[in-house]
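stage 2 :: seqdesign
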């Protein structure tokens, strides 16, 4: 997947790309575009990203007053819906919503900036989320974003993640292919 971190300089202290970039990339992409909205309010921009070609749209529960309505909006726009959990956001939201979502995104850093260090306590939340997914009997992706590197991706996979966001670890390396290969080896070794 292509993972888009969308920031609005309100919900998080940074400003990044919008739907026009997504629309420009979509015709050249053979994989789904995974849009992570770090914006508030979130509902206004969902249709724009759906129209621009997003396949998955994820949002933070703190970014809307009506989480269930936002999930329905994403589905009504023809996209899969994801719910994002910051390091201090409890998984309790899943008690009421796991039957409606297609992806759980665990933030292993505080959102807003690339290049941060992985917060080790995220492994506990990843394990807990995996247990909830298994108990639901649904096919839900478990994605992890923040500080994912060659030296910790195996532990992240062992905790239960099946989808990994790696930006700085790849783009900051001297050899993208070698870094991705190293990550894939660590994931395979975790199985």
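stage 2 :: out
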């Amino acid at each position: 997947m292509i993972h888009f971190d969308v920031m609005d300089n309100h919900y998080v202290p940074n400003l990044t790309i919008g739907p026009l970039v997504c629309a420009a990339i979509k015709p050249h992409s053979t994989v789904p575009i995974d849009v992570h909205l770090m914006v508030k309010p979130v509902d206004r921009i969902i249709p724009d990203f759906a129209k621009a070609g997003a396949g998955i749209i994820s949002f933070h529960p703190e970014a809307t007053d009506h989480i269930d309505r936002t999930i329905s909006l994403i589905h009504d726009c023809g996209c899969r819906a994801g719910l994002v959990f910051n390091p201090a956001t409890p998984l309790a939201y899943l008690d009421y919503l796991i039957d409606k979502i297609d992806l759980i995104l665990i933030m292993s850093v505080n959102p807003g900036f690339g290049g941060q260090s992985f917060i080790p306590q995220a492994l506990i939340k990843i394990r807990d989320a995996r247990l909830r997914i298994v108990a639901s009997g649904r096919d839900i992706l478990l994605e992890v974003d923040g500080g994912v590197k060659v030296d910790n991706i195996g532990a992240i996979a062992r905790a239960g993640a099946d989808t990994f966001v790696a930006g700085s670890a790849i783009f900051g390396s001297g050899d993208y292919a070698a870094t991705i290969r190293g990550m894939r080896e660590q994931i395979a070794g975790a199985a």
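stage 3 :: structure notes
- The helical segments are 19-25, 46-52, 67-76, 94-97, 122-136, 153-159, 168-171, 176-190.
- The chain has a mean pLDDT of 94.
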